[in-house]
């Protein structure tokens, strides 16, 4: 087997099992009520990691930097004949990357809201996610439409 494929398989196995283990620990072993408020954010990060790993398994994307450009190479040979399939796989992968990057400031905004508010609800986190996800969805759709119309 190819060394890159072995490393990808190794990373994907841990990319699914470790977030699931972290979710189990957060749900069952969070002792303090103050820490339990942050557990929602940790669970959201773990779910995003699982979704990102699944898109990585489906697309098998490798990034190559050459001539001051970034090239996305999809190594999943079953997607090659189907243009729409690998385009959707690439867009899903890029979307997960955008959401991963945006999740970092959302965590700080959520922590600030928890610290400054006497009552913090899950709707604050949902609204922050919704705001950023809608922006990324429109951006991804605009890229797809501009490349295919």
TrEMBL record:
Keywords: Membrane, Transmembrane, Transmembrane helix. The chain crosses the membrane at residues 6-27, 39-64, 84-104. Pfam families: 7TM_GPCR_Str. InterPro entries: 7TM_GPCR_serpentine_rcpt_Str. This is (pine wood nematode) hypothetical protein.
């Amino acid at each position: 087997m190819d060394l890159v494929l072995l490393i990808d398989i190794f990373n994907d196995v841990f990319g699914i099992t470790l977030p699931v283990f972290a979710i189990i620990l957060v749900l069952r072993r969070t002792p303090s009520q103050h820490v339990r408020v942050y557990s929602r954010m940790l669970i959201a990060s773990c779910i995003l990691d699982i979704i990102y790993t699944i898109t990585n398994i489906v697309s098998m994307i490798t990034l190559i930097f050459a001539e001051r450009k970034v090239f996305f190479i999809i190594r999943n040979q079953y997607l090659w004949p189907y243009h729409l399939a690998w385009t959707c796989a690439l867009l899903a992968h890029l979307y997960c990357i955008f959401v991963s990057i945006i999740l970092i400031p959302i965590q700080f905004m959520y922590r600030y809201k928890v610290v400054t508010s006497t009552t913090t609800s899950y709707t604050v986190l949902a609204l922050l996610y919704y705001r950023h996800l809608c922006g990324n969805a429109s951006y991804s759709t605009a890229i797809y439409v501009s490349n295919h119309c």
